[in-house]
Amino acid sequence: MTDSRASRRRASGLRAVRAGAGATVLGLFIVGVAAAALVPWPTIAREPVAVTALPEPTASILSCSGPLLAAGRDAGDAARLTEAAATDISAATGSDAPDATAERLAAADVADGTGPDALTALPIDGTRTDIAAAGSASAEDEDLRGFAASTCAPPLMESWLVGGSAVTGASDLLLLANPAGVTAEVDLTVYGADGPTVPAAAAGIIIPPRTQRVLPLAALALGEENPVVRVNASGAPVQASLQASITRTLLPGGVDQVGVTAAPATTQVIPAFTVTVAPGEEGASEPATVLRLLAPSADSEVTVELIPIAGGTPESHAVSLAAGVPAQVELGALGAGVYRVEVAAEEPVVTAVWTTTGFGEGDDFSWHTAPSVISVPSLVAVAAGPSPVLAISNEGEDEAVVTLSGVSGEAVSDVRVAPGTTARVPVEDASVYRLRADGGVVRANVTYRGPGALAGYDVLPADAAAEPVVVYPQ
Length: 474
Fold this sequence. Notes:
Radius of gyration: 31 Å
Number of domains: 1
Strand content: over 45%
Number of strands: 35
Distance between the termini: 71 Å
Largest sheet: 7 strands, antiparallel
Structural class: mainly beta
Helix content: under 10%
């Protein structure tokens, strides 16, 4: 009994000693940590290993919209598409570069169609080759009439098409070209009065290699008056464009080939468009000039400035946009002349302006999209057509000095563009120029005007320079 109690007392004392020792160690640990926090620790800074590599230059590829197309000429097959007018292409590569090779893409949806041209320029001495091309066509038929001009553009993984209509009288066509040697798959998002939708016919569109697909816009957006289409490609990039045409009481009211507009941004500029219908003229009671806007992702307050290029009082329009719903703004009874559009928005937007020569027999219309900024020397292809003019806008704070030269380097002219203005330079049709801008923030388009003819397209920045890529090895 006594030994047992003694053993329990020894065990209890041992536990007390251990507890006391533990508390002492814990206290020392806490004091040590507190002291360490006050003493600077040694640091080791290691810069990440970075390797700068210049990508191997690849071929420069452009795809054109192709011939003008007509639907419904076969009474037994109203949906059948046929060619209505061939396209005349003007193209050139940079100085000392061989001509681009042209390949005719398959026209999978056009009866006996010849398809659009795709142009390829191979790199030279480790440098990618600059290339530019544009095409034009005229139709004088009972069901299709007008003049169309468009730039041949590089294929993209994402494109925005602002223009066209799917109401009664419109026969608009969506053109999707795959100039690559692998299959592309395309998904289309149609923005309309009910917001963005992906119709069943717009998902998983397969475009075989070196082929153009043509889809009626009405099959994607039936009844939409102001559609905007986003084109997303996988597998291979595609070149997207839109053929717009309209018939009013059995009379053709014009035709146009509409290229992609600049990606969504809070600032968009359309350098120039031409108004030919003066207030009070026959047909001018209808809106002869309208602007289409879309804020794809968020509600946005937008200010639209309409500026006469030859001088005069600018007009300002305030527009409230609901996310994903296109809006069409009538730009008033504008006098005949040339105008610039500046769009400033709280959230990124896309835009284009529509104008017409009138609403009677023999009239034509044109969509003018917003070009991207030109920050490197670029080629400008001028398609054949009436009275072409190169319009150069400068939205920067400094004056821009723009040099135009021939492809081989011979000087043509120097143009000074003051901040917030547009300069217009007459150019020769069926020709190619080189444009170099110093200073300012420059965008440009080419416009055409003639009897019953109206057209225009953007000047695309050169795609020839491959930027260095910084690689961080793991």
